[in-house]
Amino acid sequence: MRVLVTGGAGFIGSHVADALAEQGHDVLALDALVPQAHGGEAPRWYRRHESVVGDVADAGLVTGLLRGVDAVCHQAAMVGHGLSPADAPLYTARNDHATAVLLAAMHATGVTRLVLASSMVVYGEGRYACQSHGTVRPAPRRPADIEAGRFEPGCPACGAPLIPGLVPEDAPLDPRSTYAATKAAQEHLASAWARQTGGTVWALRYHNVYGPRMPRDTPYSGVAALFRSALERSEPPRVMEDGRQRRDFVHVTDVARANVLALTTPPSADPGAGAFTAVNVCSGEPRTVGELAGALSDAMGGPAPVVVGGARPGDVRHIVAAPDRAEALLGFRARRGFADGVAAFATDPLREPATSRSAGRG
Fold it and tell me: What amino acid positions are annotated as catalytic residues?
């Protein structure tokens, strides 16, 4: 199978390209190599594959590349929490407009199979239950509560403490940041495209991905990279809130394998009818942010983490995924455990720092 991998030079996209090639597939990688993300140079791993430097939003280029392609694995995106709403034009241009261009080009060339890199951020807060009111959606946390060190959201009906649980794919979407809003929009665009064209989409909702080639030292870096950078400076990792916020840290090699499975698994609906299927891509091994910081400190022989309180606007308390649908539909179950993965991450090669204030996956 010939597969176009957008964002093929990026953190996740490069691992997807490698995994596909290892399985004998023909990879065509596309990446804009924007200086904010790559310093303007193609990383060595990008040169392993047939590759093109260009923008997904370039309709003519993408239409030409799609001729002879069997499927698209769309990883290119501007990622991360962002700095402020001033980032919104860049996020929507790189994520939503570029996705719309890609979908139009796929329609024009008859390519009907898409794997879309989505994210757990589309859920907003995770799944919670109140002992009196059952499953509830907590309201956004108030700044006054954060400042006072009250980090746990309460029941919107009675204010009682909530019990966090696993988020299933049928949970309502409730994006809390610009990035999250663009990922939800990508899903909606892809779903509409599938219905209109009879195409098939697997939307892979990545949880907290970490591993080699992760971008470092940018405002958009993942928390694992931020902690490691601090330790490399002999500084303690700074953990926000109380460190007890729960996440699911999934290794990038597992994420790449999930993409290969999605590209090679028949759709969950009748071919030709159009199908959009979202699945969580996670480890199924919930951990706290404090545990991650502590494990990295131990692995690197660095200072112990420091809990600093506070939270960024739009931060959520707990978001931990239910892994069952990915296993049932794709046969995917994460293989890399937390302890082993974090120990390796202490010395994994990372992508060099970006040179300006915005970044992207690809």
Answer: 179
